[in-house]
Design goal:
By secondary structure, the chain is mainly α. The chain is built from twelve helices and no strands. The longest helix has 34 residues, at 31-64.
Length: 229
């Protein structure tokens, strides 16, 4: 993902200007950079769609996992909170990325304001144990699956996907460009990337926001959903 992003930086920088975003009272805007930002956001949205597809498949496999082949505790270790992760993305995260379309300052804050990794922390806590456990119980699972035993290879790949997805998010939050607006947006994205790295490593810290204050708050309805999660 990182290499693919880097290969397209020059193409993004020469994007056609888009002036649809200019509104009375807004701070200085760079239409050239906005066009670049929209392309990067589209990549985030595509990565999100792919991630949701894989999470849904993991949820299916979670529902299939038999207690005859693994104990309930082992099933929890294998799949952690995959159903919750699915709800998190289906209910609001993908929609909030769309909301950031004309509010670039919000895209970095999205990974902070909604305590994004609070949903990923339980998965991270068990993920290092899930693959060794899968290897340990593969014979019992293969016996139960019978002709469908090939799904174990798919399961191994899917269990690594949430970690890879976080790396994809971090790579896409590095925005090309220059100018005042880009600097303000990138400040928040850098804070988000640092927070993702630290939180995923298990060291919980509170991010220190830049001096720039958000100009576009998230919708109240989404805030409510997040707290319920």
């Amino acid at each position: 993902a990182v290499a693919a992003v880097a290969a397209e930086e020059n193409t993004e920088s020469s994007a056609t200007p888009n002036t649809d975003f200019k509104r009375p009272g807004d701070s200085a805007r760079d239409p050239d950079w906005r066009a670049v930002y929209l392309k990067r956001l589209q990549k985030l949205l595509q990565a999100e769609a792919n991630h949701m597809q894989r999470l849904r498949r993991l949820r299916q496999l979670c529902d299939m996992a038999p207690l005859q082949a693994v104990t309930l505790a082992e099933k929890i270790t294998l799949f952690s909170n995959i159903p919750q992760l699915c709800r998190f993305h289906e209910l609001f995260f993908a929609g909030l990325l769309q909301y950031c379309r004309d509010k670039p300052l919000c895209v970095g804050q999205l990974f902070l304001h909604f305590n994004f990794l609070a949903v990923y922390a339980p998965f991270g806590a068990t993920n290092m144990m899930s693959l060794p456990l899968l290897d340990e119980r593969k014979d019992a699972l293969r016996m139960w699956l019978g002709p469908q035993a090939a799904v174990l290879t798919e399961l191994r790949s899917l269990l690594q996907n949430p970690t890879h997805q976080l790396e994809t998010y971090m790579s896409l939050l590095s925005l090309p460009g220059s100018g005042e607006e880009h600097i303000q947006v990138q400040q928040w994205c850098n804070i988000a990337v640092d927070y993702l790295k630290v939180h995923w490593s298990g060291k919980r810290t509170q991010p220190t926001p830049p001096n720039t204050q958000p100009t576009h708050p998230f919708p109240r309805a989404h805030t409510h959903i997040t707290h319920r999660e």
